[in-house]
Amino acid sequence: MTTPDQTRTAEVDPLVLTAPAAAGQRVGAFAVDVLPPLALLAIAAVMFAIGQAALGWIAALLAVAAVAAALAMLARTGRSPGGIAAGTRTVDRLTGAAPGTSLLAALFTGRLRQCDLRRGRDPFAPALAPFVFPEPEAAPVTPARGGMRGVAPVVQLDSGQRFSLDSALVLGRNPSAPRDAPSAVYQWADLSRTLSKSHARLEWDGQLVWVTDLASTNGTALRTGGAAQPLLPYQRTPLPPDAVLELGDRVVTVKVAA
Fold first, then answer.
1. Of 5, 6, 54, 233, which has the maximum CB count within 10 A?
2. Does 187 lie in the same domain as 82?
3. 183 in Cβ contact with 201 (< 8 Å)
4. pTM confidence score
5. Which residues form the FHA domain (predicted)?
6. Beta-carbon count within 10 A of 34 CB
């Protein structure tokens, strides 16, 4: 008998097993990022004061470039030069990902967390050991005699293709299935290049659809209540009926018959 708990999507803390950076690390990272631009600005002020305007402008532009480069690194990877020196990574508390284009908004709203990579898990690393798929001969579970398996769900891509999920399916730009986890594959053309070669695996066990992100570059997320909940790599997660998945910038809808 299926209970409501079995169909509820797992709520996962993206910062599980991470360690917050110590005060000394935060101060050290800040100093490494801020002191060089401040020194360049001081040099620029001196140059302007002694009448060397050209050298002053060069020093000022170098200071601005240093700040811009540090912010770009922090937004893209969560690690500025100071973070690299201090052994920390700065991520969004809600997603465990680099802040990206929302860096300044996250900074002023307190949504950022600086993690110590020497004492805890890197937020970018999987929180769990890779999922081991069952041996081929033990994968399907035969229903009890007289029972009926549900009608296979329908997978619909945002490009219009529809599939019946009769067996496991791997989606990606150029997907492949390992020998110990055989499945059908679908090569999904993606000009945006946000899909990985083997991005995600969908499985139907007769009652529930399961999704597994295959350590994709841009991640897999489940839309719930208008928000997108990122999935951890290699964590096999059950889907609710009529689930909507985001694979990079692409959208997949999985409809389960009543």
1. 233
2. no
3. yes
4. 0.46
5. 169-222
6. 14
- Cβ-Cβ contacts under 8 Å for 129 (sequence gap 6 or more): 234
pLDDT tens figures, 55-87: 999 999 999 999 999 999 998 889 999 999 999
What pLDDT, on a 0 to 100 scale, did the predictor assign at position 151? 82
**Among 112, 115, 84, residue whose Cα is nearest residue 18:** 115
pLDDT tens-digit profile of 133-167?
Answer: 555 444 444 443 333 456 889 999 998 899 899 88
With H, G, I as helix, E, B as strand and everything else as coil, classify residue 39.
Answer: helix
Q: Using an 8 Å Cβ cutoff, are 116 and 15 in contact?
A: no
Q: How far apart are CA 127 and CA 15, in angstroms?
A: 8
Nearest-5° Cα angle at 194, 192 to 195: 115
Give a yes or no: residue 129 inside a domain: no
Beta strands in 43-93 (DSSP E): 88-92
Residue 87 within a domain: yes
Question: Residue 206 pLDDT more than 90?
Answer: no
